[in-house]
Amino acid sequence: MSVIFTIVILLGVLSIARTFPPEPVYCTESGGNFAAIFIFDPSAPEKVSILYFLLVDLDLIVNGTGVIPWTVDGEHRNLYLDIKDKNFTNFAEELHFKPAEWRVIPYDRTRDSFTLTVNGTHVNASPSGCNRTLRGLLD
Predict the structure, then answer these.
(1) How far is CA 58 from the centre of its chain?
(2) For position 3, what pLDDT does the model report?
(3) Distance CA 29, CA 113 (A)
(4) Is 30 exposed, middle or buried (0-12, 13-18, 19+ CB in 10 A)?
(5) Rounded Cα–Cα distance for residues 127 and 111 (Å)
(6) What band does 17 get if pLDDT is binned at 50, 70 and 90?
(7) Of 49, 58, 21, 55, nearest in space to 35 by CA
(8) Of 121 and 115, more confident
(9) Is the pLDDT of residue 66 over 80?
(10) How many CA atoms lie within 13 A of 136 on its CB side?
């Protein structure tokens, strides 16, 4: 096999390889008193920031986590947050989340969504949820 042919094949394979996650922003659907936007920075792979919104006594509180490290399994089915990272522990403590529920966050390729567990309740985060989340917060 010629070197040029090998390079062309390699470039073709790399061009169709998808990054994980496929989109830079995933949002939970607004509902109740909590909504979140997960921001994956393509220039800083394996780092995520979470912008979150809380409704407390009719006051909207907006805050962010700072950067939280993460990894993914080889099949892109689970995202593993570093739940010992200070940015995450501060976030979980402030919102009274159980960190163990966020250690493994399942990813559904078909729906391009993550399933979060917030104190026993499953919440989906997807790119399509962003319009609904922002609209819900502004209503």
Answers:
(1) 27
(2) 44
(3) 11
(4) buried
(5) 10
(6) very low
(7) 55
(8) 115
(9) yes
(10) 18
Distance (Å, whole) CA 79 – CA 119:
18
- CATH number for region 20-138: 2.40.128
Nearest one of 28, 43, 14 to 134, comparing CA atoms: 28
**How is 23-45 classified by DSSP, letter by letter?**
SSEEEEPP-TTEEEEEEE-TTST
Residue bearing tokens 């962003």: 130
Q: What is the mean pLDDT of residues 34-46?
A: 86
Structure tokens at 59: 């006051």
Give the domain ranges of the chain.
20-138
| CA–CA separation, 126 and 6 (whole Å) | 37
The predicted pLDDT at position 135 comes to 53
| Tokens, residue 51 | 């912008």
Q: How confident is the model at residue 6 (pLDDT cuts 50, 70, 90)?
A: very low
Buried b (16+ CB within 10 A) or exposed e, 81-97: bbbebebbeebbeeeeb
Distance of CA 133 to the CA centre of its chain: 14
